[in-house]
Amino acid sequence: MNFRFLRVTLFTGRDPAKIRARGVAMKVLVVEDSYIERHKLGLCLTEWGLQHTAVSSGNDAVKLVEAPNPPDLALLDWLLPGMDGIDVLRRIRKLTQGSYVYTIMLTAKNRKQDRMLAMEAGADDYLSKPVDAAELRSRIMVGKRILELQQSLRFAATHDFLTNLLNRSEILAALEREVARGGRDGNPAAIILCDVDHFKRINDTLGHAAGDEVLKEVARRLKADLRPYDVVGRYGGEEFLLILPGCNLINGAKRAEEIRKLVCAQPIKTPFGTSSVTISIGVTAGCDDKRSVCDLLREADLSLYAAKKNGRNRVEVFTAGQSAGAGQS
Fold first, then answer.
1. Which option is the CATH number for 20-154: 3.40.50.2300, 3.30.450.20, 3.30.420.40, 3.40.50.1970?
2. CA 95, CA 81: separation in Å to the nearest integer?
3. Catalytic residue chosen out of the listed positions 37, 217, 238, 299
């Protein structure tokens, strides 16, 4: 074990402005083989209002980064038993393709070539030991701002700007993942395609600004009763696509009816007037290796067309006898 000393100046009193990442407490991983330094770092992080987990080896660090809900930021010692800090950095950069972990290397190595090696391996920042607490806090705050910016950019790239639901490309990507998972695990998923009835009439009578408010409220109601692992996105225009993992066709149809009732239960009030809104819904289920994403979307679309054709404000379930219609109105 490497016993080095951390120069710590604890701030008196709690800072009311906790270090946060996008309104959620930022999670910090401390990777340090010295118990003394782990403890002192932990005192600082606690004082600053940061959630943190401490481990003593690179192998344990990689396990936590690879697990669901990885840390946002890692304070990483260079000299570790087994897998050292440079190896951990390289693994982190390979593992975290979906969520970025900001890393600060803490080490007694202070040569320029050491700093370059750490940066080339994937470190975002580098702090020489003994570590000054005020300096460490400032580096963490820089990391927080970068993570917030990255999170904002990622959100903008994956979500519809009006409804804040997943955009078309992301909801289709989610469907592709669910189809792949269903083919692998044999679990069903219900696919629900919704369309706001007579939406053009709302735009024509109340204006497009009112139409935007209606879409935002419909999106909010669609999300209101979903499970944490259900997914909903704006498929296009006034159409919305929902993916309900673990639901077969029967249960999917029941959930679709509950969603339909929830959306039309109350008129939608906007600054430009009030409108009663209903939706038509088409439902299919599957997610196996026999049907592609295109097959499932076609089935949902055919069912939605049937709901429109049969009077709107209703749920129709896909059956093998359905055939393509002339188009929705």
1. 3.40.50.2300
2. 21
3. 238
